[in-house]
Amino acid sequence: MNKNYYFKNIPKVDTLLKEERIQALCRIYGKGSVTEAIREELDHLRALVRTGTEEEITDEFERFTEELPGKIEEASRFPLRKVINATGIILHTNLGRAPLGNLQGEALFQTMGGYTNLEYDTETGKRGKRWEHYADLIASVTGAEGAAAVNNNAAAVTLMLSALTKGKEVIVSRGELIEIGGHFRIPEVMEQSGARLREVGTTNRTRISDYEEAITEETGALLKVHTSNYKIIGFTEETSIEELVELGEKYHLPVLVDAGSGVLVNLEQFGLAHEPTVQEMLKKGADIVTFSGDKLLGGPQAGIITGKQKYINEMLKHPLMRALRLDKCTIAALTATFREYLNENNAIEHIPVLWMLSRKSDELKQQAQELCAALKNTGVSGEFAVEPSISMMGGGSLPAEEIPSFAVTIKPAGMSCDEMAERMRKMSVPVIAYTKNGRVWFDMRTVTAGEVHELKCELTMLLGESFSGERVWESNPPRTRLTPNTGFEDQGAHQLPNHAHITY
Ligand SMILES: *Cc1c(COP(=O)(O)O)cnc(C)c1O
After folding, report:
1. How distant is the alpha carbon of residue 230 from its chain centre?
2. Which one-letter DSSP state was computed for residue 490?
3. Contacts of residue 361, Cβ cutoff 8 Å, sequence gap at least 6
4. pLDDT, mean of residues 295-305
5. I need a labelling partner for 340 at 20 to 30 A (CA). Which of 175, 415, 435, 444 fits?
6. What is the C-alpha to C-alpha distance for residues 502 and 5, in angstroms, rounded to an integer?
7. How far apart are alpha carbons 431 and 73 in whole angstroms?
8. Contact present, 72 and 22 (Cβ < 8 Å)
């Protein structure tokens, strides 16, 4: 074999860069990163020419240009990227909890594009405060006197206890000593913040008299923790916020509430059980209520602190605040989120978490039927059906609620469900589904209309490959860029968001 012949025929970087498909990738990922990926592939090719057999080498030469765009794409993708969540779990912790919508995404893009007035008062030309961008808005939406926000709710609880109860005893019911996961455990958070835990009552029953009997000169606050990720049922008794507020007033102690998932709308309208809202808790007189930004609120990861201004002020001037403060991107997305809540209908329409919760069975069934029919039409192998399924809130919220939904279920031919799941995870836009009764289930509640198209293309390719050994798609699978669209219009394949002035 004449190796020199092959060495001479190895394509040049510059020639490859001129190809149309490669140029398209340069526009998406940048020329630098694409060139880097090409060099790497050429190195592999050279190594093969050095060590491979003639058959291996000719094979590779034949495939090289055809497969190059796919390989570049794989190498250029961000490690953190879009996936399709077909699990039906709305706040999937491993999939980033609350997905952001169009308006939230817009706000983020705008803020990332250049300088901002983050700590600059454009009225006076003097230094401003970053929380002035959102504090009044959060207060007015929740009906609180004041508001602040930090990195997440774990940080909010830590800051609250550090600023208000350091060195004091904090009374908590034994039924509310929760662990959220990720090492957030009330007793440990308390220890970190320098407060002393004084547990009262029992796991299933705690009365107001239990709290009262535990109050001493050492007491700094009464803490109520919303047991958002489990339910105690049966012979139970829980002390209400009203009772705690009455007791707090009697002994001049603040009543602090870790509300966890932080609902701002009445969940009964979605056919779920009533979950106390943040507004209700504040109205009942809670001094401080903290909650997550990326659970039921449907915003970015953040911890929201609402309540009496004098306590909020204590937190704002605490040294921890500097370590836990929000960055400008979060401020932008959080502000956009709360703005939607000024009108509840807007919130339900534009915030993906609420929109997904509000989707009706008929709509989900129709979406499943359309996807199922489209898959059958492509002629790929496998059994396809539409079946009723169960969605969950997830994220440690509403643990007892089963939300009826519809799914497309597939029994793949020529591979097991596990194999199919694995291959779906490796696709251009990974698809996360679940396996039950020997079939792979794609729950429609968490799949947007735009994603259905993408899902169809990806599944067609995957199932088509397995039965004919050939790609159904000639080029790379169609892919959608970040689509922070809660109208969820399909932005189409290979289309960049219209922010040409921004360098990513
Ligand atoms: C989720 C949760 C937390 C932690 O909130 P993060 O925003 O995840 O830090 C704390 N307390 C309760 C009751 C929760 O449900």
Report:
1. 21
2. -
3. 404, 405, 406
4. 97
5. 444
6. 45
7. 17
8. yes
Question: Which residue's CA is minimally distant from atom 12 of ligand 1?
Answer: 260
pLDDT digits (tens, 9 = 90+) for 398-439: 888 899 999 999 999 999 999 999 999 988 899 999 999 999
Asked whether the whole model's pTM tops 0.70, one would answer yes
Question: Would you say the CB of residue 151 lies under 6 angstroms from ligand 1?
Answer: no
For every residue of 150-199, DSSP letters joined together read ES-HHHHHHHHHHHHHTTSEEEEEGGG--EEETTEEHHHHHHHHT-EEEE
The neighbouring-strand residues paired with 403 are: 391
Pocket test for ligand 1, best of 184, 188, 226 (most atoms within 8 A of CB): 184
161: Cβ below 6 Å to ligand 1?
no
152 lines ligand 1 (CB under 6 A): yes
- 384-398 residues labelled b (16+ CB within 10 A) or e (exposed): bebeebebbbbbbbb
**Burial call 313-345: b when 16+ CB within 10 Å, e when fewer:** ebbbebeebeebbbebebbbbbbbbbbbbeeee
**Two tokens at 154?**
């774990």
Ligand 1 pocket test target in 94, 186, 290, 292 with most atoms within 8 Å of CB: 292
pLDDT in tens, 258-284: 999 999 999 999 999 999 999 999 999
Listed in sequence order, the residues at least 6 apart from 121 whose beta carbon sits closer than 8 Å to its beta carbon are: 127, 128, 132
Ligand 1 centroid–CA 245 distance in Å is: 22
Q: Which of 440, 449, 434, 437 has its CA nearest to residue 370?
A: 449
Under 8 Å CB-to-CB from 78, ≥6 apart: which residues? none
Please give the backbone phi and psi of residue 37, each rounded to the nearest 5 degrees, phi first: -65, -40
Q: Measured from the CB, is residue 153 less than 6 Å from ligand 1? A: yes
Please choose, from the candidates 84, 93, 175, 86, the residue with its C-alpha nearest in 3D space to the C-alpha of residue 396: 93
Ligand 1 pocket, residue 172 CB under 6 Å: no
**32 vs 40: CA distance, rounded Å:** 13
Cβ of residue 290 lying under 6 Å from some atom of ligand 1: no
Which DSSP helix (H) or strand (E) runs through 425? helix 417-425
**Rounded Cα distance, 410 and 467, in Å:** 15
* CA-proximal residue: ligand 1, atom 5 (nearest): 153
Token representation of residue 363: 């709509």
Structure tokens, 67? 């497969």
Count CB neighbours of 102 within 10 A: 17
**Three state DSSP letters for 218-278:** CEEEEEEECCCCCCCCCCCECCCHHHHHHHHHHHCCCEEEEEECCECCCHHHHCCCCCCEH
